[in-house]
Amino acid sequence: MKKKDILLCASIYLLTSCGSVPLTGRKQLLLVSDSDVLTSSLTQYNDYIKTAKKSASSSQTAMVKRVGQKIATATEEYLRQAGMANEIKNFAWEFNLVEDKQVNAFCMPGGKIVVYEGLMKLVSSDDELAVVIGHEVAHAVAKHSNERMSQQIAAQYGSQILSAALSEKSTMVQNLAGTVYGIGAQYGVMLPFSRTHELEADYMGLILMAIAGYNPEVAVNFWQKMSAGSGGNIPEFMSTHPSDAHRISEIKRILPEIMKYKTTRR
Ligand SMILES: [Zn+2]
Fold this sequence. Notes:
two-stranded antiparallel ribbon
């Protein structure tokens, strides 16, 4: 956490909180309450899912729901055992496969996961799908949207929030929701997360898939396949930072540690 952020946290503790990310322990600036994040993101998600066309493939839809639910259950169990169940107490998981040619997937705060059919063309096993869903679930569990929003609030409003009433803060959240979640303006395209968030989602996602019983070792090949097969479109989970090469070498580096979490439960 930057010095500036720590100062900000210390100054406005009455209105806000500073959290730490499950599994990594990284300290983060969280200026927005979970309920404000969930309310504002749910509005956008509901608007999106009403108009999105659900996939006609019952087998692929079942695959998304099966892998998603298994990772969600493992995540809940892990956090409960670690005394961090509160982190996701307001989550209501949903797993959708949507008719869209893009190679993409995203997860809204609160556990609303959307996978596009275009991605499924490159997925050849539950393990590979678990790499993507684990990554997306990790963004949600780590509250990256809240942190990104908080950083924007800090940058835009600075010391003003020190004196802001809670009602004013809600307006800030509403104003920023569109730019942070992205799907309001352009369905299904989330703003890229930062390099820190992407690497953190990779790391946490691999752990979550491992404790759900999937094999994280498929991640290296899968990333290489995605890197070659996304046809120039950059999916959320492959945003330009970090580069594919850096990301793949990072995954190789952390795999021995990740494998310690691997269970045989399937
Ligand atoms: Zn991502």
